[in-house]
């Protein structure tokens, strides 16, 4: 039996962002994290079921979906509760709002390189952005915690982590995450951890930041199932925040988006 990865999928002229950009040019677009393979059968079957039903009206997040999410993250030993989950139309939307959680007088530490929307969002925010240039040690990108501590002195209130790291491809070790968590605690920061690629690690163990001790009150976990199931165009993401105070603050900010669930 042929596997999905053995069957090429021609996405030209199918309203694909990356292929449309180079329409009529001899260029293979490799720049965006969606795949030129079919999505798994479970996705196709769910779409078929909906099409056969034929109803596309308004919907709300069903409880079963929250239960599925809770079950999905259990595989990483990460036990979440239903009311910790905030649903949003994709993580890029969140990235463009997240710096608004802090005051204009406060600053946010953004590592570089990083998934570009974190930098674009910085340009459009009123906050002071402190760019932390990741260092290369033995061919791997790492945070320089000494420098980070100096940077935190500049009225920092938030620090960003991309885990696994895009574009560096790093799956951070537990020890690295523990050191970063200790830094966050020491400086009383909010840690924003974008973990959308948690399943794409070529067998290397990914540790959710939420499993690191002592960080839960300061942690915003951003994640999604869209990369895992190759449904990036579905535009749906989860922000999971255990701390009720931080979650409330975040959810209030996000009400401006007036997000409702999408059937797709
Ligand atoms: C690190 C990272 N975060 C967020 C996103 C975008 O997520 P979404 O499709 O949910 O907007 C991507 C997309 O490639 C990404 O690489």
List key phrases describing it.
264 residues; alpha/beta; Aspartate Aminotransferase, domain 2; seven-stranded mixed β-sheet; 8 helices; binds pyridoxal-5'-phosphate
Descriptive notes:
With 264 residues, the protein is of the alpha/beta class. It has one domain: 3-Layer(aba) Sandwich (Aspartate Aminotransferase, domain 2). The protein has eight helices and nine strands. The protein has helices at residues 17-21, 41-53, 63-74, 91-98, 117-124, 145-152, 174-186, 244-254; strands spanning 85-88, 107-112, 128-133, 135-137, 140-142, 156-162, 190-194, 219-223, 237-240. It is globular, with a radius of gyration of 19 Å. The mean pLDDT is 94. Bound molecules: pyridoxal-5'-phosphate. Pyridoxal-5'-phosphate binds at residues 33, 90-92, 115, 162, 166, 194, 196, 224, 226, 232, 237.
Task: Write a brief caption for the model.
The chain has 264 residues and is of the alpha/beta class. It has eight helices and nine strands.
Percentage of residues in helical conformation: 25-40%
Q: Could you say which structural class the secondary elements and strand pairing correspond to?
A: alpha/beta
CATH superfamily grouping: Type I PLP-dependent aspartate aminotransferase-like (Major domain)
Mean pLDDT: 94
């Amino acid at each position: 039996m042929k596997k999905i990865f053995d069957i090429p999928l021609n996405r030209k002229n199918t309203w694909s962002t990356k292929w449309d950009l180079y329409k009529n040019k001899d260029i293979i677009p490799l720049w965006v994290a969606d795949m030129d393979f079919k999505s798994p059968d479970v996705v196709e079957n769910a779409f078929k079921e909906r099409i056969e039903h034929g109803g596309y009206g308004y919907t709300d997040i069903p409880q079963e979906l929250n239960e599925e999410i809770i079950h999905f993250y259990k595989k990483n030993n990460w036990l979440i509760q239903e009311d910790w989950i905030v649903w949003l139309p994709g993580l890029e939307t969140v990235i463009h709002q997240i710096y608004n959680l802090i005051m204009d007088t406060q600053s946010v530490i953004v590592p570089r390189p990083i998934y570009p929307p974190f930098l674009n969002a910085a340009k459009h925010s009123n906050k002071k952005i402190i760019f932390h240039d990741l260092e290369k040690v033995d061919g791997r990108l790492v945070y320089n915690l000494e420098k980070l501590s100096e940077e935190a002195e500049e009225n920092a209130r938030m620090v960003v982590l991309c885990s696994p790291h895009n574009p560096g491809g790093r799956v951070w070790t537990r020890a690295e995450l523990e050191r970063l968590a200790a830094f966050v605690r020491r400086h009383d920061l909010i840690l924003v951890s974008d973990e959308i690629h948690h399943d794409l690690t070529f067998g290397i163990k990914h540790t959710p930041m939420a499993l690191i001790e002592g960080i839960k009150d300061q942690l915003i976990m951003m994640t999604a199932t869209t990369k895992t199931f190759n449904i990036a165009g579905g535009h749906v993401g989860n922000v999971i925040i255990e701390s009720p105070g931080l979650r409330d603050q975040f959810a209030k900010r996000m009400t401006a988006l007036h997000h409702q669930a999408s059937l797709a």
